[in-house]
Amino acid sequence: MINNFYLFYCNGTERSQNNQGWSVYVKKGNNPNDLLTNKPYEVLRSEKSLAAPDVAFYNNFYYLLAKKLNKTNDKWGTTVFQSDEVDKAYPRVTNNPILSQNNACASQYVSDGNLYVIYSLSES
């Protein structure tokens, strides 16, 4: 039985003169329709562009993968964040990024006690 529904998304301003930065927000509801009207709250903030958040529960932690833009070389990568609770702050874990050089768009899922990550491989 599903107790709650969660919607994670990114929003930010990279071309603004003030307050540049990106955030991952979450909306929580008892059913999918609640996600349309419930207020979002921030669980992650970054000075770099973020996109495509993906969350999975594994070994008693929630892992959030997010695409991050490296403005130095204009290439995307994927960074991992971890939390004890699905809808609380997600600090960055060590050994990041896990993907770079436009190898990004990671999704994750757990099956038979294993965490699997699927991503797009850049050919350039």
Strands of the widest sheet, in order across it, are: 1-2-3
What amount of the residues lies in strands? over 45%
Mean pLDDT: 88
Q: What is the correct CATH architecture?
A: 5 Propeller
Tally of DSSP helical segments: 1
Task: Specify the oligomeric state.
Answer: single chain
Order of helices and strands: EEHEEEEEE
Instruction: State the helical fraction.
Output: under 10%
The main sheet comes to: 3 strands, antiparallel
Structure overview:
The chain is mainly β and 124 residues long. The chain has one domain (5-120): 5 Propeller (Tachylectin-2, Chain A). The chain is built from one helix and eight strands. A hairpin with a 7-residue loop joins strand 1 and strand 2 (21-29). The chain is globular, with a radius of gyration of 15 Å. It starts with a strand and ends with a strand.
Question: What are the salient characteristics of this protein?
Answer:
single chain, 124 residues, mainly beta, Tachylectin-2, Chain A, three-stranded antiparallel beta sheet, 1 helix, globular
List the helices and strands and how they pair.
Blueprint: E1 5-13, E2 21-29, H1 34-37, E3 41-46, E4 50-58, E5 61-70, E6 75-83, E7 104-111, E8 114-120
Short summary:
The protein has 124 residues and is mainly beta.
